[in-house]
Structures are given as C-alpha cells and as structure tokens.
Amino acid sequence: MAGGRCGPQLTALLAAWVAAVAATAGPEQAALPAEQSWVQPMTASNWTLVMEGEWMLKFYAPWCPSCQQTDSEWETFAKNGEMLQISVGKVDVIQEPGLSGRFFVTTLPAFFHAKDGIFRRYRGPGIFEDLQNYILEKKWQSVEPLTGWKSPASLTMSGMAGLFSISGKIWVLVVISECFYVPLPRHLSERSEQNGRSEEAHRAEQLQDAEEEKDDSNEEENKDSLVDDEEEKEDLGDEDEAEEEEEEDNLAAGVDEERSEANDQGPPGEDSVTREEVEPEEAEEGVSEKPCPADTEVVEDSLRQRKSQHADKGL
Q1: Where does residue 114 fall: left (phi above 0), alpha (psi -120 to 50 degrees), or beta otherwise?
Q2: Is 292 a catalytic residue?
Q3: Which residues in the chain show pLDDT less than 50?
Q4: Alpha-carbon gap, residue 128 to 137, rounded angstroms
Q5: Annotated catalytic residue 179
Q6: Is there a cis peptide before residue 109, judged by omega within 30 degrees of 0?
Q7: 268 Cβ partners below 8 Å, 6+ apart?
Q8: Which residue among the candidates 6, 67, 179, 292 is catalytic per the annotation?
C-alpha cells in the first residue's frame, strides 16, 4: 500500500524536476550566439582589401539556386582559409551592383582569384576539394590574368561599376513606379482599344483607296497608250495608201505614154508599100510590125503584185 502511494508522488517529483531543468536550460541555449561565418562580405567600401594578399571571391544572388548549392562548400573552404593562407569573401550582386559591374559578372555564381592585385577567373566547380587543390597546387598560375582594361582596378571597370550602380537604381525606381501605378478604369481602357481599332481600320481604308487610285491611273495610261498606237497605225496605213496611189498614177501615166507613142507611129506609109513590092519574099517571111500590148500586161501584173503585198502588210 505504501509503495502504491509513493508511485504518484515520485512521478510528480520527476516531472517537476524535468520542468525545472528545461526552464533553466532554455535561457542558456537562447543566449548562445549563432554560428559565426568565416566568409567576409565585400562591399564597394572595402573591396580594395583584395588588392593585398591572396583572396577568393564569390559573386552570388540570394534567389540563385546554383549559388545556394555552393554555400556550404564555400563556408567549409573559408574555415580552412587559415591553413591555406587565403582569405575568402563573397559579394551579393543585388546589394552591390557596382562591384558586379567592376568585375563584369554576367553569370552566377562567379568565382575570382586575387593575388597581390592580379585577378583571375576561376571556372571550376564550387566544391571544397577542387577549391583547395586550386590553391595548394597553384593551378591559378596557368590561368590568364585579367590585365589592362579588363582588370577590376582599371579606369574602364570603374566606369562600368558606375553604370551598373545607376542601372540598379533605375531598376529600383521601376519597381517603385509599378507599385504606385494605377490602372485605367475598364470603360476608359475599352474606349482606348476601340479608338485604336477605328484608327487602324481608317488607315487600312486609306491604303486601299490609294491602291485603287493607282490601279485606275494605270488603266487609263494603258488605254491612252493603246489609242496612240492605233492612231499611229492608221497614219502609217494612210501613208502607205498614198504611196500606192502615187505609184499607180505613175504606172498609169507610163502606160498612157507608151500607148500614145504607139498611136503616133500610125499605119504603114508608101515607102513600106513600095518596099513590099520590091521585096515580096522578105515581106512575106517577115512579120508585120504592129503595136504589141506585152508591155502593158507586164505593168499591170507588177501593179497587182504590189497591191497584194500592201494588203498582206496591212493584215
């Protein structure tokens, strides 16, 4: 019976002791500081520290998944910085757009090695072992340094830093303006859309009218050219007819002259009679001289041929 009574009391005492221990341990655990990061944040005010000694820098953005995947490896690399005799830093491109412009960062994450003010781009993976071998084996010596205007310390890159800083401020202004942007009421937006559509339709009608006017003008020009061609053909036909008439008149005049000459010779005279009496045999064998119409037939045939040729040309 005594043991049964002590059981609940012992349980209550144990519960109270656990609660007391938890109460005392809670404030002590809350008072513990957060784990300290070995990576040094770099800004526009302290970036010149990398001009002395040996450094490794990482450019990242909080929203970048690839950057987040290398955070733990980069922290481990920074913890071993004292052993490797190297300083490790990081640059938030959102907070420091000027530094991203100075190093001309276009991809994330981006890694750089610095040795006494001479910078090189590290293009290997962001894994601790690769980073450690890169320093211990001095693989950076085989990488071409960023010299001349490409160096982050040059005047050119200083100007690039200013441009990136301005662009970052402009981006902030754009975001703020979008926050304060008040959209137009629905009926006003609908009216603006209708006005835009009516203007486009009016422009389309104007273009169509202009094309129709061009087509009409082209048709009129074609008609005028056809009429001119027909008139020229008619003029040429009239000239050909006039030439034919002149040739016919000339030929007819020649025929008349030949006929008149034949008529002027007249009937045979007395001399021919006496000659026939004296030389009857020659007169019988010879052929009496009469006007021959062969010449007139030849002339008429030539006229017919010329007329047929002109008719063919006209067709």
Answers
A1: beta
A2: no
A3: 1-10, 13-14, 18, 20-33, 175, 184, 268-291
A4: 14
A5: no
A6: yes
A7: 289
A8: 67
